[in-house]
UniProtKB/TrEMBL annotation:
GO MF annotation list: phosphatase activity
Pfam families: His_Phos_1 (PF00300)
Any one GO CC term of the record: cytoplasm
CDD domains: HP_PGM_like
SUPFAM superfamilies per the UniProt record, alphabetical: Phosphoglycerate mutase-like (SSF53254)
Source organism: Flavimobilis marinus
SMART domains: PGAM (SM00855)
Protein name: Broad specificity phosphatase PhoE
Length: 214
């Protein structure tokens, strides 16, 4: 069977001076460092041992800006797939912390009662389902080659847990999905056979996991 690789890439750093959870709010663009990250990953794919046939991104601005230089470096047209979008979240537009954020206000506490679902946003099972559907369609369209899908931290991480048959409940601080990271899923025909995680911009990541949003 044909070996196909689907690279799930998280977008680069976002300009977010107010430290809000921006989620699906439009208008959040890459910071200067984020653009540097995107260019670095474009070089990583263009100059590495890759056979990439397509580049597809979430419709959100930060993902589009991350994917654009990658598609350009590979001389490919950038595609968009709504299923790669960030997870919806009740706390969008709010600061999210115990001492100075939304968690100090009792009216928000009912949203935290069920971390398994989770009760504050799009169910994990729905995130995994839409992401896996997008992955399957992209994989079939480039059978035997590679495709880059630019998405967001939580959907990528939940998708990885799904493929590895691990439970969805997790500590967000321990997600292995840093800014501009690449989680590569390998398939033998339709069968998932493994994954590999890389951080092409690891040297640009001091404090990256503490950046608000995803």
């Amino acid at each position: 069977m044909a070996m196909t690789t689907v690279h799930l890439m998280r977008h680069g750093e976002v300009h977010n001076p107010d430290g809000v959870l921006y989620g699906r709010i439009p208008g959040y663009h890459l910071s200067e460092l984020g653009h540097t990250m995107a260019q670095r990953v474009a070089t990583f794919f263009a100059e590495g041992d890759h056979d990439i046939a397509r580049v597809i991104a979430s419709p959100l601005q930060r993902a589009q800006e991350t994917a654009t230089p990658i598609a350009g470096a590979l001389e490919l047209e950038l595609g968009t797939d709504e299923r790669l979008i960030e997870a919806s979240n009740y706390f969008e537009g709010k600061t999210f912390g115990v001492g100075d954020g939304s968690l100090r206000r009792p009216q928000h506490w009912p949203r935290l009662i069920n971390p398994w679902r989770p009760s504050w946003g799009e169910p994990y099972v729905e995130q995994a389902a839409r992401m896996r559907a997008a992955i399957d369609d992209a994989r079939r369209s480039v059978e035997g080659r590679e495709v880059v899908l630019v998405s967001h931290q939580l959907p990528i991480w939940i998708t990885r847990l799904s493929y590895e048959n691990r439970r969805f409940l997790h500590d967000p601080r321990k997600r292995e999905c840093s800014l501009a990271s690449v989680t590569s899923l390998r398939f033998d025909g339709d069968r998932f056979v493994g994954l590999h995680y890389q951080e092409p911009v690891a040297d640009l990541l001091p404090g990256a996991n503490k950046v608000a949003g995803a």
